Model the fold of this input.
Amino acid sequence: MLKYLQIEWMKIKNYRVFQVFSILYLLGIIVIIYIFYKVYISIIGELQKAMTGTNSEGRDILGIFGSDYLPYTVCFWTSLLLYLPGMIIINLFINEVNFKTHRQNIIDGWKRETFIFTKISLIACISVAIMIMNFLAMIIMASIVHAEITKEAVIVSLFSFLQAFVYLMFALFLATFFRRSGIAMIVYFIYGLILEWILWWLVVKIHPSLPHFLPLQSSDSLIPFTRFRELYKDLPSVGVSLAVVCGYALLFITLAVRKYKYDDL
Amino acid sequence: MSPVLAVQNMTKFYGSIRALNDVSFNVPKGSVFGILGPNGSGKTTLLGIVMDILKPTRGSYLWNGQPGSSEQRKQIGTLLETPNFYHYLSGQKNLQIAAAIKERGKKDIPGVLEKVNLFQRKDSKFSSYSLGMKQRLAIASTLLGNPDILVFDEPTNGLDPAGIAEIRQLMIDLNKQGKTVIMASHILDEVEKVCTHVAILQKGDLKTVGTVNEVLSGTTSDTVNTLEIELAAENIAMLESILKSLPGIIHIQTNNGNILLQCEDSLTTTTINKFCFDKGVVLSQLDLKRKSLEKRFLEITGTKSEH
Done:
């Protein structure tokens, strides 16, 4: 698989859109969490001022940047940026379709399975990179707020790998299914940002735990919003959530592979 | 010796549209095999299936007696339909990707770029290439690893006259080196000049297949055969008059002191000569005309373009 990934790297390393989006994402991870921290501290400061009349710097009174909760806070906010690498995946795959290089790679001697599994492996690599970035963001934030990096940080980082993998596999599945960049991206955003919330609203009436079994929400539920984890009282156990997330990852892999293996290219 | 490519009962439907209908033929080793047909006749579909980018509805194919596989495709240089490259990469980087997929080293790349006169522009982005340059890069890619089998779909698309001549000569040279070339084209002149064998497709049906000479002379099994013979004598009027009584004559056309005779292939020049002599006409000219592929193609497929 390494030699296939090397070929994949030859394809994308000089692609300007990939470079720009990657830099935007890397910067975004640090910027989004730092902005949230500054806004949060400033709001707390304002509240303290209103309540006590003293002008003092805000403190993390909710403890969301404490050692135990910092990993969740960081990964919750950075997960909001997962649509960026999702767009990259859609763009990279649709490029292959538009340039017809997805056919040429097969003509030149790749198996159809090799082509699609190389893309899946690329997604796995990008997910690992996202996990590492999240961990680095935790370290940076921990140094800013003087918190400690605990075992929880490693576990949450691993969860963020799964979350990224499911988001990106969903993007790849849509790209293989629609084969049009615009349509795949619109469906990706509409599903993730609107449709799944509508589904949440519909299925929560059936059973309060059901929303946590939706495709993207299941991976989001692995990293609930820190201190307010108690609010997610219907959250399935971590073991169940992991099984559901792995199930969806497998489903998206199967659908993408089947589509690519048996269809006309 | 097994053929380089054996296509067996190949049928392909796109929804309700039949693109190929029970097509079978063999490509002999060492031939330049032309697949000739009007637009939409199924040439590219056929090549797409044997390169595994399209799935047949029915039928099968064998490369060198073996079912198609990725390992075999690595040994075949293929240009299918359009040059397919990454637009944002240079010509050289695109060839590096193709070479890596084919598991060939990079050492062939300068040589193949020289061969198609693209070496000077190797570092330019593919998107900046003209149509002809893109086509030449695609041909360069097919030559990577010096494969024994080459598949070209409309190889001279977008090339200027000099480029067309170069590529045709390249194919002839490759064939002289013992390589088998399979070429789909709708350009009759190209097929006639380059190919040793030809298969004619129309609306997905295989109309005829054989060596170019067999197809031109109409001696393939599945066609109605006619001959064209040019004759002359001192007394053209008398010659025309007696020929009308010769059995097997289909059409007589007088032309600048000559007669162009279209007749059944059961007639030979010897028969005609003896018939005229017996009727008191001495022939001053008797030529069996070789038909052009264009004429033969139009006889087989009709004259209308198919879009």
User: Anything to note?
Assistant: The two ends of chain B are 39 Å apart (CA to CA).
